[in-house]
Each structure stands twice: as C-alpha cells, then as structure tokens.
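Technical appendix A lists one of the benchmark inputs used to test multi-chain prediction within the project. The record comprises two sequence entries:
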Amino acid sequence: MTSVLEVPVDPIVERRRAVQAAATASLGRRKLGSRVALGVCWLFLVIAVIPLVALVFYVTAKGLPAWNAEFFTHSTTPEGVPGGGVWNAIVGTAVITVVATAVAVPLGLLCGLFLAESDGRTADALRFTADVMTGIPSITVGIFGYIAIVRNFGYSGFAGAFAVGFIMLPVIIRAGETAFRGVPRSLNEAAMALGARRATIARKVVVPTALPGVITGALLAIARGLGETAPLLLTIFGNQYLQWNPTKPMAALPTLIYSYSSQPYADLVQVAWGAALLLMAVVLVLSIGSRLLAAYLRKERR
Amino acid sequence: MTTIETPVPRQTRRGGRWSLPDNGYRGLLAVTAILFGALAVWFLVAIVLQAKPAFATLGFGWIFGRVWNPSHGLYGLLPFILGTLESTAIAVALAFPIGLGTAIALAFLVPSRVRPVLSTTVELLAAVPSVVYGLWGLIVLAPIFRDTVEPFLTSVLGWTGLFNGPNNGPSLLLAGVILFIMILPTMVAISRDVLIVVPVEQVEGAMALGATRWQVLRKVVLPGARTGILGAFTLATGRALGETVAVAMVIGNSPYIAHSLKSSAATIPSLIVNNFGESTGTQLSAIFGAGLVLLVIGILVNSAARWLVWSTGNDSAGVELGR
C-alpha cells in the first residue's frame, strides 16, 4: 500500500511547481509594476496631447478674429497703416506651389515608376538618395535655390518654386514607388500575357490601380511644400504688392508669418496669426482630404 | 433577320497607338531617374563649390572657432554647432521617453474606438508647418517661460548650474521645447507603426505564460520593435537638427556659446537665415560653409535613420509622414 505513494518524484513536475509558486508569489508585485508602468504611458500620452491641442486651439482662437473680407482680398499694408490683408501672399504661395507641383509630381511619379520596376545597384542608390533627401535640412535647399537660380536670374517666384519642388520631389518618388509596388503581380502578368506593351501596362494597369496611393502621396507632398519657409526666405525676396508673375519677387504666407511675428506692431502680429490659421487649415484639409479620397477610391474599387 | 455585330474593342487599338515601344518607355523612365540623380549631385556639388572659398581662406580651423565676428574676420562656427546640438539634445531627451510612452499608449492601451481618431490626429499634426509652431512658441510660450517656467525651474533645479542668469523667454530651453513638440508626432507615429507589427503570436504566447501587460511590452514587444524605434528616434533627431524657422523665432539668436539653458543662443540654420541677406565675400562663403556642415550632419543622421528603418522591413515609414 505504501509502495504506491513512493513513486519517484518527476523532476519536470517539480520544476513546474517551483516556477508556478514563484510566479504566484511575485504576482502582486508584477501587477503593481505593470500598473505603474502603464500609468506612466498614459501620463505621457496626456503630456503629448496637451501642447498639440493647445497649439491648434491658440492658432484658431487668435487667427479667426483676423479673418474678414479685406484679409482675403487686399494686399499687405506697410506697418502702421491699418487694414490690409494677405491676398498677395496667398497668390504667391498658390503660384509657387502650383509651379512646384506641376514639375515635381510628373517627374517624381516617373522616377517612382522606374524604381518600382527596377532592382539592382543603381535603383538602390537612387532609392537611398531619395530617402535621405526627404530628411535633409530645408535651409540647405534654400541655399541651393539661391546658388542655382537667384545668382543667375535674381530673386523670383520661380526660384522659390525650384526649391520647394526640390523638397517635394523625393517625397513623391518614394510615395509613388510604394504605391506602384503595391500593384499585384498577377495583374501585370495578365496584361503581359495579352501582349500589351510595358507603357500600356503602366498606363492601363499600374497607374490606375495605384491611384489612391499616388494621390495621397502627391497631396501630402503638396501639403509639405505649402508650409516650407526656410527655402523661400532665401529665394523669393518677398513683395508688398500683388504679383502674379513668378519671374518677379513674390510674397508667400510662410515668410509673411515669419517676418510679421517679430514685428512690434500688434496689427501685424494679428495678420500673422490669421495667416498661420489659413496655412494650417489648408494643410490639414489637404492631409485629411488625401486620406478620405484614398479611402473612397479603395472602396469604390471593391 | 438581324445580324449580330461583334463590337471591336476600341481600347485595344488606342492602347497600341498611344503606347511607346518598350525600349522607348524604359528609356523615358531611365532618363527621369538619371535626371533626379543628377539633380541630387548638382545640389551637393553646388554647395561644396560655394563653400570652398571659406575653407581656402580660413582653413578648417574656423569650424571650431569660438567667436563669430565678421567685422574682425572671425567666423567661428562652434557657438552655432553647439547651439544646434544642445537644442536638439533637449528636444530628443524629452521626445524619446514621452514619444515612446505615447506610442505604447496609442498602440495598446487606448480603447479601440478612440484609437484611430487619436492616431490620425497625431499624424496630422506632423504636417503642421514649422512656422506655425514658431509663431505659437514666440508669442504664447515665450512669456509663459519667462514668467513661470524658467523661475520655477531655477528654484527647483538651480543647484545644477544649468539655470543661471536672467529669465529670458526666447532661449535655448524654449527652442528645445518647441523642437520637442514639433518632432513628437514623427516619433509617435513611426514608433506606433513598428510596435503594432510585432507578431501577435509572440504577444499571446507571453500572455499565456502569465506575464503581465507591462512584462509583455517590456520583454516581447519593445525588443521586437527596437530597431524601428531607434530609426524613428534618429529620424526625429534629423528633423530637429535641420529645423530653421521655428528655432530662429524662439532661440534669441545671439552668436555666443550659451552658458545656461536660459541664455539665448543660435543654431546653424538660424545663423544662415539671419545673416544671409547682408553677407558678401568671405562671410557669404562662410555661411555656405555652415550650410555644408549642417548638410553633412543631416545626411549622416538621415542615412543612419533610413538604414535602421529599412532593416525592420518597414519600407514606407517616414515617407508617409513627409518628414
């Protein structure tokens, strides 16, 4: 009868028991530690959200009072002269962004298509270059714009558009490549089996399929280009008057905010807040719009 | 009796007529790619050539000179290099723990209903132009720093010697804090992306073994996402190093080595923006040289960041954020 109870102890079971006992003993401590650590994460979330919310709140609260009909229709007035708006800066920013987009988007997408269809050392080098260029200090691009364009042709909207387009280009290239690479191989192969030329495949299959990603990428690049300040400070010179011609010095919203922010005149600071709200609103609308549009296009396809 | 006509697929014919032959198409793409590569090379060469006179006249020692006084022929860059590194250090020292904690909270703690809203908000804030952050920092934060934050920090941390001198408002500290707020969305969005791709089987396995939520994060999720987080951190660092206008607006722009966090200082980008207009000759070349130094730092940091993010296989991170 006792012989049944004297079965030798299984070392694995024994080890399991010991681990279980240790885990149970430390459970309270581990639970407390977990709660404290996760509490810190919550705290950091709150710390992170406060300044970001405060920024949006302040810019809206201080910028809205500056918005009136004159703000959107009149050009800037010299300091001390009441009234005036930012129409010249709106036109400048619009012209510069349109010119930069018109050059950078087609060029960037063709480049993205090249990268999506190529593997190898050259493609890798270009990919890496584009990636590094998305992060280089924008002021150095301003210097490049000054050396390449301003030195030869003078301060102008084109010089600004050159610098802004240069900043947008790598963003579009990489976003385009990512979108084009997302096109299923089977679609490509089906088109090839039908005897289509590569250009036809690109135009009829790859680009339409990748369109949501392409549009998102392009809009995000435009949103980024809109807010670039440093390169414009070295290239467009600024202009107090309305100027539609990009071969001449132009005004722009970001540079206007920059120069008015440090002015001792309250009405100029007020204009800066209004311009900041406008710029922020346009950028946010573009970013949100690109997401919604991409989501809509993806749903449409299914 | 009617005859059934088979419609000829018009698209096919048009497709044939409009398309380039294959080698023409490949050629067009290759030409644009070469154009882009040439543009990048031109960019680098142009700045190097313009900076060359400064190096020719001043040698290489001027980069580490302590005094910037162009009227006496002194073009020391050290105050600006230090200002750039110090403001960036403040920013990343704050952004790393807070950004990582926020990313963890966004990825795992926040109720799933609010999660997409919060995540999108953070990502959108990465797109707000830096000049807007600068305006807010200069007009709203600077007075608060001068009257409340700096006196408070001085009374609590004055013994460290980091808070000597008068309360300034625009200062190294304020520049660091503004940079911190600016790079936070980048840090959070990329960290969150790499945290949520850690395989769910590993997480469930750890939970099945009886690990607490924090233990799962600490021992499974964070090690798995380590490289990606490091990449996010490095990208954010690169952005802080190169930021121009927001910093130029709140750092006070004095060309001296800061002796306290409350001193005004200057960074390489702010030096360029503030002195560009009235520079000629050697001074202009020295400004371009400063730009070259900044560019080299920026390329190194970004190459490291890309390499780290690439090695996690997270190809699109950062590109989607634009910066």
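The mean pLDDT of chain A is 89. Chain A touches chain B through 100 residues (CB under 8 Å). Comparable benchmark entries are summarised in Table A2.
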